[in-house]
## 1
Amino acid sequence: MATVTATVGHSGVSALLKNLRGHRAVGKLLLLAVAAAVIVPVLDSHWASGTWPGALTVDLSAPLGRASEWIIDNRDSHPLFLYFFGYVSSAVVLSVRAVYVVLLAAGWAGVTAVAALVAWRTAGVRLALGTAAAFLACGLLGMWVPTMQTLALMVVAVLASVLLGALLGLAAGLSDRTYRALRPVLDTMQVLPAFAYLLPVVLVFGIGVPAAVLATVVYAAPPMARLTALGLRDADAGVMEAVTSLGATVRQRLLTARLPLARKELLLGLNQTIMMALSMAVIASVIGAGGLGDRVYQALASVDVGAALAAGIPIVLLAVVLDRVTGAAGERLGSDSGATALRWAYAAAAALAVALAGHLTGRLDWPASWTLSIAEPVNRVVDWMTNHLYSGVPYIGGTADWAGHFTTWVLDPVRDGLQWLPWWSVLLIVAALAWLIGTWRTALTAVLAMAAIGVLGVWKPSLDTLSQVLAAVAVTLVLGFATGIAAARSERVERLLRPVLDVFQTMPQFVYLIPVVALFGVGRAPAVAAAVVYALPAVVRITTQGLRAVDPAALESARSLGATGAQQLRQVQLPLARQSLLLAVNQGVVLVLAVVIIGGLVGGGALGYDVVFGLAQGDLATGLVAGAAIVCLGLMLDRVTQPTARTTKKGA
Amino acid sequence: MRLRTTSVMAGAAALLTLTGCGAVDMTKQASPFANARGSKSLTLSVQSWVGAQANVAVAQYLLEHELGYRVDTVQVDEVPAWDALSQGRVDAILEDWGHPDQEKRYVEDKKTIAPGGDLGVTGHIGWYVPTYFAKQHPDVTDWKNLNKYAGHMRTAESGGKGQLMDGSPSYVTNDKALVANLKLNYQVVFAGSEAAQITQMKQFAKEKKPFLTYWYSPQWLFKKVPMTEVKLPPYKEGCDADAAKVACAYPHTPLQKYLNADFAKSGGKAAAFLKKFKWTTEDQNEVSLMIANDKLSAQDAAKKWVDSHASTWRAWLS
């Protein structure tokens, strides 16, 4: 009897809460409506409706133009450059060079041996074999030297990111005030598409490795900072109490208790930082990073998908290997038995022996005859696809027709609709959405971000980009949820899917660009297609995980009540996985935006084109304003879709 | 405490000596990948179009096989390439289509870039339609009749107007102004990169669809997709001075080479070689076609050309 009342009481309360929550949503909307009813007529009488009023824009092109002239004229004489940026720049060049020279001196055999032995000691035999195979594959594809260049760049960029991130994280972990101040900054950094901030870095540092490394650090440091702070703050209170009672000083507490307790988070941070740094490798090639990214970029210039793939595969292999090894190292933490130092010594000696053997036999370079050319067969496949799928397929029409229909029936109406909406109504919609899903703070940020776009004077192109993002997100979610549900219901599907998702997630976005043009023609449709391909894996993964994590007891009881599979899914799994699904939407939006912009390279136009134009013409005014608008758009989209629980990852 | 201060001081001192004491001129830093194993090396800038890749491929092949240099290549857009050249991040640009602003800033004022002479190839930008379409409708080749054909050129991207396809944002173009000033019923659609533009043109050609595009010669694609130029109002000196008021065709430009000033002075054999490097449009197209159409690697294509044109390149080495 008691239990029954308890459950009734519980469900009654939850129903009430639900009701109340519903009321709160209505209340928020009412409040917004009232505010709108007061403000809109005023706005409307002052400035016409329709597109963003010219009176409310600020033209930044003159000051930005002057700034860029000043930098170019003073770069080789002003103390700021001679004594600050100069040091930063040469420190980067020297360290990248040092790593590169060491890698070359170790030779291919030495590098492979060292990598395999490190993997063996931290992650076990299977991953050691995998690592060795991956490095050999890089050589086999004829990409040894570019791989080493990328690796040298990555080592320096990751070290710098980890150092910077750990310092920030340390500060945020130890002081509440710093934590509060830093959190929105890190949040923001993580939603920024990297493409948007290449230009300012280039302007100061010029084309080349220092600029590439610094852009990478900006992109890759936030997860480290966030996870370090998280690890330090979540330290077990009991342990801390005990350590304090033993009379440890602050520094001792940090070194002996807090940091060791946060080891898992630190390693996860390292893992995330590595992945993000690698995903920058190709984007950074636009500003002259060299290495594998540059090979991909050059191959694309001659429409050579095969060669682009040959340079893209090593990036994927490096990413997968580094991900697995650091992941496995995190899991094995603390389970190490003794005598590790000795084993490390043996391992190091063996690696050294291999490297020396390579050195003495004079086999440092990867032998030219040991390469495998995959470019030609791949290109044949691509040619076949474009020959047979582009148009004239009976009944279903070719991909070009689909792209045309998609553009006229989906992209055009959405874009025209958005651009037709009065500017204040766009702000209202943004406010309503953000407030319903988040808090008034997120709503405020979203509205301010959207308004900033108008003030910058790029309202129309931004809405164009927004329409592409919306269309791509819709397609991604439909495909992603369907695939995610399938994978959650069947282990087999998930196992089959896993390597495919791995590849799509780590393959540089640029590699998609030419095949999508070959299939969908030039325009916005291929940009959307590339974005869907890129964002899909994250959405599928989060959906699958969310559905899998649904309480088995709830499912069991539903099943015992005779619910069919579809009913279970609709009435139990999906509602319970609501948080994960929201997160999937959020991640999908952020990832789609990142690629839609790169779509400027295949005719996507709008903001992406302006960024490319700014980079290509050294036009700071156009490029930087477009970059800022992208940042605002990213911020707005993130806040509008922000679920209450955020994860630490950007690429999921 | 004392120990820590000393070690910090030592570290700072080490950093200072490492970076050469005092001021560091960041504008004079070579790529960290250059000269990695004590070999003589240089860095060439490659632009995104295939003609530029052909120049670099042949220069690289000869530098490596005849003069014993190690050559790094970096793909950089045109204007940033000037900047990189002035800073010594790259040592040479082998094909420049005319950038008067940059020439004034770096060659005349700052003197950080030195002219490297003619490439031997003359470049020309224009509007083109595929020859199969020009044969059916001969009057399309005059800009005055373009409006008549706007309906033929319409695509999903161009709205209700005809599509004039432009390429990479890094290329010199007046097309938006031209369309407006010549009162053409066309929409300029930017393909965003040359690769995207070529891919799209090949697709159109395969279906024998009409299209109007910004394009330029020398270009290997003419061999695969024959195209006919559309006559624009003739070019006169200075008619393109005001970017907003342009209403004339593009000029014919003898393409130029530029070297980093320091490299030009002390670059030894490599600099002398690059200054003498001069070939014809046909030579360039031959190599370009091998790279872009036959999908040979740039180095294989260069080797093929080098093997059969000894008399041409011997002159560059002397």
## 2
Amino acid sequence: MKRRLIETIALALLRGIALAVLLATVLLIGSIVRGGIGVVSWEFLASAPTEGMTHGGIFPAIFGTICITLLMIVMALPLGVCAAIYMVEYAGASGLARVIRASVNNLAGVPSIVFGLFGVGFFILFVGRSIDGVRGGALLFGQPAMLWAAATLAVLVLPVIIVNTAEALTAVPRSHREASFALGATRWQTVSRVVLPQARAGILTGSILSISRGAGETAPILFTGCAYFLPRLPIVHLSIPFTELSIPMVNPLDQFMELSYHIFIMATQSTDAALTRPIQYGTTLVLVGLTFVLNLAAISLRVRYRRGLETR
Amino acid sequence: MSASPEIEEPVHAAPRREEAGPAPRRRRGRLMEFLIESFLLVNGFVAIAAISLIFLFLFKEGIQAFRTIPASHFLQGRELDFDNVPQTVMMWQPVGQNPKYSLVPLLLGSFLVALPATMIATLFGVACGVYLAEVAGKRTREVIKPSIELLAGVPSVVIGFFCLATLATLLQNTLHTTFRLNAMVGAIGVSLVIVPVIATMTDDALRAVPAYLREGAHALGANRWETITRVVVPAGASGLVAAILLGMGRALGETMIVLMATGNAAQVTLNPFDSVRTMTATIAAELGAVPQGGEQYRALFLVGSILFTITFLINLVAEIAVARMRKRLAL
């Protein structure tokens, strides 16, 4: 009887704690939605800050976030996918594969502020200044810029892409590869025509997760290119030779405004934090909404393809 | 790929080609394979290169701090008090006439946030993981697991803002603390980040425990709770240790939450309701305003190197624990 009682109480306690975590999540999201829902309007999303950043919208921050995450994924995705292909399909269970796996795990555990230090020490001061040294002339690459911030974030999300791609590759049954080899296909033909098409969903999940991660990280970009306020968008007009025309293009060597940095700076360094509270809540709601949608997409995608693998 | 020579070749040459036929094509194919493999190999090194470069560039700058600052100053500095009597002080105060670089308040601050956060998150995260793996039905699991994953996806700056705007006031009104922003506010915020980490890893570890162990326990008359505490959790213990350690590593490295919610006062204290300043927050708050290559710049890189080393060691132990569990359960 006593054993029965203990079991009932203990299991109820476990259920209660799981519910408490759920409740905390709801409370967290709820407080942000409640504070921000009245602020977010079309005008808030589409206009620039005005009156010393105490009024107006957050369009430059949204624009900057989109630019930097796209630039980041363009850099990180090919590298990460190729690394995962090599690790799973070529290196197999060799010592090199183990070293790569250990590096990926360690990279995933590096504190985000250390990536910030790395971005300054390696990308800006080493790579950037070296390019400037070769080019000669004024400082262009050796200063904080969108390019370096995106590169720093790319290193940060590399483990996310590698782990997700590797998981998807490993999930492809070995028999499919053997069948392909038996038909005379080479290793690359097998990888590119049999394995990769089946791993597409996993690679997509990794990309979405890393975009969401990159959009939310603040510490790595604090010193690598973020600006408190820019009166302009980071755009240059490239003129086409022999014509009067010019094409606007995102300038990766410019600084930029970014959503998560905007939240941080408005909440802590603003001249009047109480006055700008609505803007802070609104910006937070936009960022939470963005990452929420991305994560939801990634999670449902993952659930769907895992289920597909189980039934196979 | 190698189709074009065949087309260009005249028809009458066909019989001759049949003998020597596939050889050049196969050779070209093999060359292609080799090039692709080499290209992938180069990419495979990218993670190794990244972690090595981080290590190299952190320590390269960090070590140089010792060139101008005596090693003992990282423990305690000297200062004249009001009566001009020299006193030893443990302070992090890198700006001023007599800059002081004691790492003691920063280390204490980091652990004063990370330890309570890990304790809170262990309680909730392990319970959540056990619930997910052993108690919850399939339906409940499919609701709770994604919610936890969504919590894991909330950017830390958002949680920092929540702590700063809502939680700090709530906590002060209920506990009447001296400082509105203190280590405990940060710890609760950080625990929100690492509960998902610990819960997910606990869930994974327990689900890796083979079913026959549970069945054996049930057959011996144990009820569900007894099976959990005496069979499943001991079998997955190394996995739980790894989960908690990884959570702690994340807690030590968390930046935005502690920067926004712990008050940022570098002081030597053991009271979790004091304002503290962690290693991560120090770097984040000061690096932007420091001249590159200066003394303080190097000292900040040294702080980063120490942080990197601590988290690296914690992750290493966690990885060994996971490997041990796999071996024990013969997976």
